[in-house]
User: Fold this.
Amino acid sequence: MSKKIFVFFPDGVGLRNFAFTKFKELGEQKGHQIVYWNNTVFSLKEELGYDEVKIENHRINRLTPIYSRIRKHIELNVSQKKFKDDVYPTYKFPFSYNGIKNTLITLYTKLLIGLNSTEKGIVRIRKRINRLERSTEKYQYCKAQLLEHQPDLVFCTTQRATQSISALLAAKDLGIPTVAFVYSWDNVPKAMQVVETDYYFVWSDLMKSEVLKYYPFINESQVIVTGTPQFEPHYDNLLLKERAAFCAEHHLDIDKKYICYSGDDETTSPLDQYYLEDLAHAVRNLNAKGKNIGIIYRKCPVDTTNRYDAVLQANADVIVAIDPIWKPMGKQWNEILPTKEDLGLLYNVCAHSEMVTNVCSSTVFDFVAHEKPCIYFNYEQPQLRKGIRDIGQNYKYVHFRSMPSPQAAVFCTDKKDLENLVNQIIEGQLSNVSEGKKWYKIVAGTTPTQASEKIWESIDLILKK
Assistant:
């Protein structure tokens, strides 16, 4: 029997997984009516011709961001005590004492964190957030939309957006089954689960064990392993462009071997431009010894800084920038949204590069899917000063403990080694692909080509209950 499924976008991060892949097509093949419940500035109807219900009321309770931060800090405090692990405080962002208002908010926030840093405190704060969001006009607005359109299930494409809370509460209060997809490989240990739904879809057995570990109020039957559609496009050979055409389109030398430098956001890697500069120097030195290597610089899609400009200009002889095809739909970083065209671009950057280099990015998995190695930079830059985040902190995070061995990526721990590591990979003498595939399987699951299919199978099982 055909069912109406609301695919809920509280923000734009789910577009890539659930609007631009074959996800919708597979659902329709099962006979479902798919309606995108759209809280973003991106119009799925205008851009893709998809059936959508737009959420025009975006106003969450003004206290929700404060209480969400309180919740996050409490969860991290509880994890630190429970697991006797000092990694959890490193997930916290510093408080602001800039001005009287920010100072008062900080003092209030810290007081409630101190009074509630227990398992019971987490439940109290979560209930408080739910009460706040049920009191909003947005809650009533979303409830009215649900009553009008009568969906059989609401599938939320990310678990980490405060914009989703009131809408999902409205669905639950109306008895409509709700599902949240855990969006990213590092989200669970970082206390980024904002919503409470009937079911949670996760990438892998690892992620399922993490959800149950960090959220004891969730039952095992509520967590379903599906994989993620994130990597499915890498197995679509129809996206491949002939090398000559790809090189001509992006002003690349068809005879050069290219290394992809995948840029990071400023928070993760504040000195990222200097690692690109180091790679450029290593490549220039190798070219002076007879190699023919270039660099493709693919910036982080939401990085709007100009911090790379000087490096790109000074090294134009070896670096070609190929920007991701993302569209700014507003002034905030989270309003820079992906496009379907970028799936093909990323596929071809992977296909026509010899390797990827970056600071701790999940692009290691994109390239492993193409049988390509990855170098992770893991040394300090001389520009590091007090107040600038050391990138070495990233590799201590919980999600990096999923590596089956240190060889799951090629770590460059000293700038002096970079040239030799690049050369060894180019010459086929060094690779992390074998161990990287094992890591990929641990993180993303055993069937990366079937994630969308498994999500629909799981939705069907829920609908039959």
The first strand starts at residue 4 and ends at 9.
